[in-house]
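debug: dumping io for the single-chain case to check the tokenizer round-trip. Nothing else runs in this session.
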Amino acid sequence: MELSEQVAHLAPVWARYTNIIVERGDGATLIATDGRQYLDFTCGIGVTNTGHCHPAVVAAIREQAGLLLHGQANIVHHQPMLALVAALRGVLPESLDTFFFSNSGAEAVEGAVKLARQVTGRSSIIAFEGGFHGRTAGAMALTSSKGTYRTGHAPLPSGVYTAPYAACLHCAVARAAGRDPGAISAAAPQAECCGEPLRRLEHMLHTQVAPDDIAAMVIEPVIGEGGYIVPPQSFLQGLRRICDEHGILLVLDEVQTGFGRTGTLFAFEQFGIVPDVLIMAKGLASGLPLSAIAARRAIMGRWRPGSHGGTYGGNALACAAAVATLQVMHAEHLPQRAATLGQLLRAELMALREDETAISDVRGLGLMVGVELAAADGSPAAALARRVLARCREAGLLLLSCGPYDNVVRFIPPLVVDEAQLRHAVRIFGAALRAG
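debug: decoded output
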């Protein structure tokens, strides 16, 4: 049977952007079995930050494959995991010094929630509007980026309360005060929050759930699937203050924002805060399944042995790839590269916005940039976004959408992308947008 004939035997639960059958990848490019090349600005949904098949990562995987594929973490220590612990300790704040490894972002989120509940003795969790934390049951309960992710799966685990996120573009309070929400959104994280999301959170703590019942607040420092929303610094700093005041753990989900994506190794570095618990995945191992939870020893040490675990977490091959990934990040200055090229990308897209009225907003940090499309009446232009993505694909550029209405086109290229590729991508996107 031809490979194409096997497609019909894949579960249709995977919502598909393309039916391209890929043979290989190189840097920012994917090459299909028919020989056609595509500029990949999906990055495997923010995973291949070092590019497809970076030589140093491939070499580390090959070397490790000849030594040990699987050394289960309950049974043995293996060198790649210990090397990864040392590498992470070298790039994280001193307080985040103890680690647990899993396979996926959702698993790490589930583990972080279990950790928070066990060590605090509290049961409730606060999540935030627009957040995406995964598709397993506990992670779904925290997710509000799109109703589709939760449809048909109720009842979900209880004890989760959803608080407002500082989404400045759609802030009615800022608009009523005469402030330009679009300008605030564009200036984030340096922009000053109006304070309304924090006021509503404080009100929640008086009306829906008592602070003494809350184990953790779980939040993306930059909203991903929910629309690529960058909050003001003061919002996250306010959460840090509230958590400190009430003994609540602040858990940052940096599954998508981590490992250079936003212009620093981790997004929290740009907000003047340090979390109690940090969740990592996606870009950690350049495409191999690996996620991590980091916290200070005083927290991790209260997680009872045997109350959490996993067979494949911290797999030797994935850990070797992660060590090589961090070495590449440092040697090639990929976070700094993301910051510089991200400024160029936003400038190019803002210039396009001057002529294209369908672009209502351009926002993001580093090479995590969203372009929101709206109709003349301001309503979400989801159908236009679908057409634009299809035309870009036909022209050799792969992009994704996001947001609750799927009207935000997201640019997440590998951090090794070059300036010429960025400009070419914007030209393709502009032509697709002009075609309507």
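debug: round-trip ok. The chain has two domains: 3-53+333-434, 58-331.
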